[in-house]
């Protein structure tokens, strides 16, 4: 059974951050993917802040790749949030289920359910609703599902009118459903008895057994969702996030001459005269945009410089990059840290 509360005040969350982030190279050649800024904030921090807002006070990170760098940066951020951050180190890749077994002693300290998240996910995080839904059905696990336009790219989830999951179909060639696993779960501690400390897929090896026993339910996500683990989806997710920000916290978005649509600009960035910025642009701390620049559907990361009269559309410009004068870049162009291109006159 679930804990007695209707909110996750005493709950924990485990976030899977052990991957190498190869799909987001060259950005991840110098920085682990969870620390890459999405909308001017490390990807992982979006999730952690949403968990804190829901009342979670202890977050466990299942780490392997560049763990020290994540510890250094995230410990500072989580101290500001007033939560406990625990690092669970994998000596070998353990898949999406093995890390739960590795952290069993931490997760099993109380009888409260705990969250599990994939670190690539950006969405309208539904953690409070997820706790209530999970408590109401009283079974062992709940996964969040979301609707997508191309379900054939994913594994789809089939469930009845009450949310009880009946089956999973991996990348169906014919339409059977447009609901997919959104990479967010809540489990009772009893799920840990199903998992050993070895490479294991929770989606392929644990979930089918749970659904067969009628112990796994699906909750439909309201609002936007995106796996931002590769550049095209990163930019699409940025557009969805900015649109959500426009609806919920419009004062955070930039307004003024030359600003078109949804644009997020760090206060320490500077934008020169005669620029056209937007729609769907994020500009990070310390960025310098010189005069006459046009930027659309792009993100400019910390301390980058974009020289005068450049045109950027569909780009991710890495930390401390320099984009030269009159440069034109588009079609999902990604520059890694310290990259320079074009004339720097």
From TrEMBL:
Nucleotidyl transferase domain ranges (all copies): 12-242
Pathway(s) it belongs to: Nucleotide-sugar biosynthesis; GDP-alpha-D-mannose biosynthesis; GDP-alpha-D-mannose from alpha-D-mannose 1-phosphate (GTP route): step 1/1
EC supergroup of this enzyme: transferase
KW Coiled coil (keyword) present: no
Domain Mannose-1-phosphate guanyltransferase C-terminal: from-to ranges: 259-338
Domain of life where this protein originates: Eukaryota
GO biological-process terms attached to the record: GDP-mannose biosynthetic process
Pfam families registered for this protein in UniProt: GMPPB_C (PF25087), NTP_transferase (PF00483)
EC annotation from Swiss-Prot or TrEMBL: 2.7.7.13
GO MF assignments: GTP binding; mannose-1-phosphate guanylyltransferase (GTP) activity
Family in the record: Belongs to the transferase hexapeptide repeat family.
Protein name, per record: mannose-1-phosphate guanylyltransferase
């Amino acid at each position: 059974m679930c804990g007695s509360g209707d909110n996750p005040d005493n709950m924990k969350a485990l976030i899977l951050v052990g991957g190498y982030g190869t799909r987001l190279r060259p950005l991840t050649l110098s920085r682990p993917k969870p620390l890459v800024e999405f909308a001017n904030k490390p990807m992982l921090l979006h999730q952690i802040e949403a968990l804190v807002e829901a009342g979670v006070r202890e977050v466990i990170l299942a780490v392997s790749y560049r763990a020290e760098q994540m510890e250094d940066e995230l410990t500072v951020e989580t101290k500001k949030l007033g939560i406990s951050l625990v690092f669970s180190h994998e000596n070998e890749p353990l898949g999406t289920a093995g890390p739960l077994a590795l952290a069993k002693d931490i997760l099993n300290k109380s009888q409260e359910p705990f969250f599990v998240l994939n670190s690539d996910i950006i969405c309208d995080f539904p953690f409070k609703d997820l706790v209530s839904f999970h408590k109401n059905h009283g079974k062992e696990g709940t996964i969040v599902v979301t609707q997508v336009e191309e379900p054939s790219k994913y594994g789809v989830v089939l469930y009845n009118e009450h949310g009880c999951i009946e089956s999973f179909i991996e990348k169906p060639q014919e339409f059977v459903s447009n609901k997919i696993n959104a990479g967010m779960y809540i489990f009772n501690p009893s799920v840990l008895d199903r998992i050993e400390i070895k490479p294991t897929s929770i989606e392929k090896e644990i979930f089918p057994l749970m659904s067969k026993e009628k112990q796994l339910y699906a909750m439909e996500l309201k609002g936007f969702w995106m796996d931002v683990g590769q550049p095209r989806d990163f930019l699409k997710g940025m557009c969805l996030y900015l649109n959500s920000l426009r609806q919920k916290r419009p004062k955070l978005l930039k307004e003024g001459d030359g600003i078109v649509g949804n644009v997020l600009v760090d206060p320490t960035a500077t934008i020169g005269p005669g620029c056209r910025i937007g729609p769907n642009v994020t500009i990070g701390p310390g960025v310098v945009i010189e005069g006459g620049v046009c930027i659309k559907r792009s993100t400019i990361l910390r301390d980058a410089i974009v020289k005068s009269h450049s045109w950027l559309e569909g780009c991710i410009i890495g930390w401390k990059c320099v984009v030269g004068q009159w440069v034109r870049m588009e079609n999902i162009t990604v520059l890694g840290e310290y990259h320079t291109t074009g004339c720097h006159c």
